[in-house]
Amino acid sequence: MNRKNESLRITEDVQCRYRTLQKNGVCLIWELTGRCNLHCRHCFAAVASAGASSARELTTKQAFSVIDQFRELPVAKVMLTGGEVMVRKDLECIVEYMRHKNKDIVIDITTNALLLTDETIKTLQACGIDEISVSLDGPEAVYKNVRGKNADYGKLLHNIQRLCDIGIHVDGIMVLNRLTAETIEETIDLTCRLGLSSFTISNLDVLPHSDFDYEGLRLTPEEIEKSLRQIDRLREIYAQKLILRTTGFTGTDCSGKQICTNKNILAINRNGMYCHCLNAYTPEEDFLDSRSVTLGSAFEYFNGRI
Fold first, then answer.
1. What is the pLDDT of residues 70-119, one digit of tens each?
2. What is the pLDDT confidence band of residue 63, given thresholds at 50, 70 and 90?
3. Alpha helices per DSSP H over the chain
4. First-last CA distance in the chain
5. Which of 141, 91, 147, 94 lies closest to 120 in space, CA to CA?
């Protein structure tokens, strides 16, 4: 790789997706549910979502209680994720309450977009959503290979177009793996034609403490290097049309048995338990229950361990 491309990589690629999306204040990563309407081949959450129920999820009232505690910290951004957040029937209520209590906070939803309707899109806009991150793996054949043959590609494109048309910022997201690597340029071109202003390509999350089997999906280091050189080239070509991000290809792997060193994030998992981050390893005994521990206390606890 030439030094120019390496410089571009260092500038654009970041160790932690959560860190770069909010540099000022605390970013709260909130896994509202483990349930999902899909069973994607590359997703470690698919193992847990297969048998997930709402039994351990925070109730609407408990979620409101957490939101009331935002004042304990300078929470600047909340990333609502899953599972699939749209399976929660109270999602709109939670977002609306969050916006009512925090006028300046940035609210981001990560979704596969298949459960969105024209009505819910308008409602989410009215509730004050700032950004929606939507999974976009590639052309239809690749998409169905990743998401399953019953995943509705036409509905995905329709909903992305609707989000863009009403002015919601949409960040396309793709996980680089053996299923998606061959159609990177085609996917980026599609992203531009749909009207998205940013696209994030993430490294495949490999979590040793997960039961998920990634064999067959992992690219070799040489294949990753080839893909990153292509992304560097495309970043220059599409510079006037698209913010093209890459995440997780440089820096320390957060998947090992270690505490994340990032001091401006906190997470709540699908069972309502505080942890430092959803990706970094957290020993079972270190989880804190948000039903009995305050947001400020949890943040202080995890940062005290760095």
1. 988 889 999 999 989 999 999 999 999 999 999 899 999 999 999 999 99
2. very high
3. 3-12, 17-21, 45-49, 60-68, 91-101, 118-127, 140-147, 153-165, 184-194, 221-237, 295-303
4. 35
5. 91
Residues 6+ apart with CB under 8 A from 295: 66, 69, 70, 72, 73, 75, 266, 274
Q: How far apart are CA 187 and CA 194, in angstroms?
A: 11
Question: CA 290, CA 51: separation in Å to the nearest integer?
Answer: 22
Angle at 123 between CA 148 and CA 31, to 5 degrees: 50
Beta bridge mates, 173: 135, 200
Are 237 and 22 in contact, with CB atoms under 8 Å apart?
Answer: no
pLDDT at 2: 40
Q: How far apart are CA 112 and CA 118, in angstroms?
A: 15
- Identify the band that residue 267 occupies on the pLDDT scale cut at 50, 70 and 90: very high
**Which of 24-38, 40-54, 77-91, 95-109 is least confident?**
40-54
Cα 211–216–218 angle (5° rounding)?
Answer: 85
Segments of 75-189 assigned E as strands: 75-81, 106-111, 131-135, 169-176
> Which residues are registered as beta bridge partners of 68?
none
Is the separation of the CB atoms in 121 and 112 below 8 Å? no
The pLDDT of residue 158 is 96
- Domains of the chain plus CATH, in order, are 3-303 (3.20.20.70)
Side chain identity, residue 103: K
pTM (predicted TM-score): 0.87
Q: Which amino acid is at 76?
A: A
Mean pLDDT of 270-274: 94
| Widest pairwise Cα distance in the chain | 54
Task: Compute the distance between CA of residue 106 and CA of residue 23 in angstroms, rounded to an integer.
Answer: 12
Place of tokens 């806009």: 125
